[in-house]
Amino acid sequence: MDVHVNAGEWKGLSAEDRAKIQSIIQASFKEMKISSAEKHPMAMEALANRKVAAFNFGKPFCTAACGVAEAAAVAACAALSGPAVAICVAAAHAAGDLCRKQC
Q1: According to a count of CB atoms within 10 Å of the terminal CB, is the N or C end of the chain lower?
Q2: Which stretches of 1-101 are assigned E, i.e. beta strand?
Q3: Considering its fold, how many domains does the chain have in total?
């Protein structure tokens, strides 16, 4: 599954920051990877317009696990600096939302 980020922002990061973000996302969400395209919203826009996927009461453990993985990824993003932090946090939230939709 792909976690979508804006290509302009993604290309603006150093190769080292891109690798760190990819590593953070894959450490928390094993089957996910970063995919970038110009049509995807900028990180701050994505965070501002985010609608959290609803809690799935039919599968509470899956939903909770997605939330824990998302929180771990967001915490790991704090080790980055500059614009990489916002892009990483946006990707972590997108991955969490995608995970919850799969529950």
Answers
A1: N
A2: 2-6, 33-37
A3: 1
